[in-house]
Design a protein that fits this description.
alpha+beta; Alpha-Beta Plaits; 2 domains; 8-stranded mixed beta sheet; elongated
Length: 439
């Protein structure tokens, strides 16, 4: 990921975090103080400290906020700084009953609970409710800060005119008396208009955010359906414009034997149902062994094993996955026949490891796929399964990476010469008695 993309992504997440989630109360409070004091705001060490804490908190949440425990802990950073400043200025007895301080704590606690619910919730309607509440709470905070600010300015004006003392003004800002000032402000039609307008705007924003949430989940569902959960996660983790890369991986290429003859005899809908059933079962198996299906190619599939494990471990995963696929075939065919669907007589699997290019191929419409000699070789090995009367062939590059237990299940076949390659490739085929389960 280049620096420009990294910086752009950081600032987008930074703005979302401070504007939509954990930073709203502190942000509104800082804006209130700045509007009240003007340039003198920067001379107040407490205000500058709170602003600094908010910026640090937001940056930390952008970096660590994908994990729920750090997110909840970091959400309290600016509140803790604000609390310390209040304690230093007014003492514990004053801070505990100060309206602004209490509402800051209430807001932060509520948002921490909502973020945990949103993180843990699996049901879509729960997440929509949380999104709705978060949007409306933010607007409520705006209304509260506005009226707190308005009341504070009125009290300061009365202090300047000598109508009340500074202690009395501070006393009116405590939680026990704030409702008196708030009810008085509601007598002003302009204030009522602001409340009603803010509530309407709040519902409008909440509605828009819920629509975005629904759309993003629909897109996510389609991504999983058409490119797979593993590929989707890889794309998201890159967080940038997709770039090609060279990786060392293990390729598994599987093909259904005599598919043309099978598809000519059966109804189109039955053929599709059969393929979906087989591909669904194979996807579960390959995923269980840390593999990723890159694409379905008609009656064939291309998968790769590129977990954080070593190339040797990924090779073992690929071979175990292939053995499990072969072991499941008889049971799967029985289930297909029970449903009145055509059964698959045989499959062929080729496995090879080496360097490939993983990236976006295409023009306006791109395919996130694998290309290279390693992919071509795996497909070539699969095509040789019928010639050697075996359902699984692996290359010598894979064979040497297997443990002794797996090596015993393979026999050495002939060597082949690959187009454009000087070295011959030695083949190892599965013994007919070696199809065993790896669940």
């Amino acid at each position: 990921m280049d620096n420009d993309s990294t910086n752009k992504h950081f600032f987008i997440r930074f703005f979302n975090e401070i504007a939509l989630y954990s930073g709203q109360y502190a942000l509104f409070y800082i804006l209130m103080q700045f509007c009240s004091e003007g340039n003198k705001f920067w001379l107040n060490e407490g205000h500058v400290a709170l602003l600094t804490a908010l910026l640090i908190q937001t940056a930390a949440l952008v970096h660590y906020g994908d994990k729920i425990v750090p997110r909840i802990i970091l959400s309290f950073l600016s509140l803790v700084v604000y609390t310390i400043l209040e304690l230093m200025e007014g003492g514990i007895s004053y801070s505990l009953v100060h309206t602004g301080h209490l509402f800051f704590w209430i807001y932060t606690l509520i948002f921490a609970v909502l973020q945990y619910i949103s993180f843990a919730a699996k049901r879509q309607n729960v997440r929509m409710i949380v999104e709705f509440l978060e949007s409306n709470i933010n607007m409520f905070i705006f209304i509260f800060i506005y009226f707190f600010f308005d009341l504070k300015l009125d009290l300061q004006k009365d202090v300047e005119l000598g109508k009340i003392s500074a202690d009395f003004a501070n006393h009116k800002l405590l939680i026990g008396h704030f409702s008196e000032g708030f009810s008085g402000l509601l007598n002003d039609p302009a204030h009522v208009y602001i409340i009603l307008g803010t509530v309407f705007l709040s519902f409008t924003i909440a509605y828009g955010r819920i629509k975005i949430l629904l759309l993003s989940e629909q897109i996510d569902t389609l991504l999983v359906r058409y490119i797979g959960e593993e590929t989707r996660d890889k794309l998201i983790q890159r967080k940038s414009e997709t770039n090609s890369m060279r990786i060392k991986t293990v390729i598994l290429y599987c093909d259904i034997r005599d598919f043309t003859r099978l598809s000519e005899k059966a109804d189109a809908s039955d053929v599709v149902s059969m393929l979906n059933y087989y591909y669904g079962k194979w996807h579960e198996t390959i995923k269980r062994f840390n593999g990723t299906i890159n694409k379905f190619i008609g009656d064939a599939l291309l998968a790769f094993f590129d977990s954080k494990a070593s190339l040797s471990e990924n090779t073992v995963f690929a071979v175990q996955s292939a053995l499990s696929m072969l072991h499941q075939q008889a049971t799967m065919n029985q289930e297909l026949k029970a449903q009145g669907l055509p059964a698959v007589e045989a499959i062929g699997i080729g496995i090879h490891c080496g360097e490939v290019i993983l990236g976006d191929i295409g023009g306006a419409r791109k395919d996130y796929t694998l290309i290279g000699d390693t992919v071509n070789t795996a497909a070539r090995l699969e095509s040789l399964c019928k010639t050697h009367n075996t359902p699984l062939i692996i290359s010598d590059a894979c064979y040497v990476l297997l443990d002794d237990g797996l090596k015993k299940q393979f026999s050495k076949f002939s060597s082949i010469e690959l187009k454009g390659k000087e070295e011959r490739l030695t083949l190892y085929g599965l013994n007919h008695t070696s199809i065993s389960p790896f669940a």
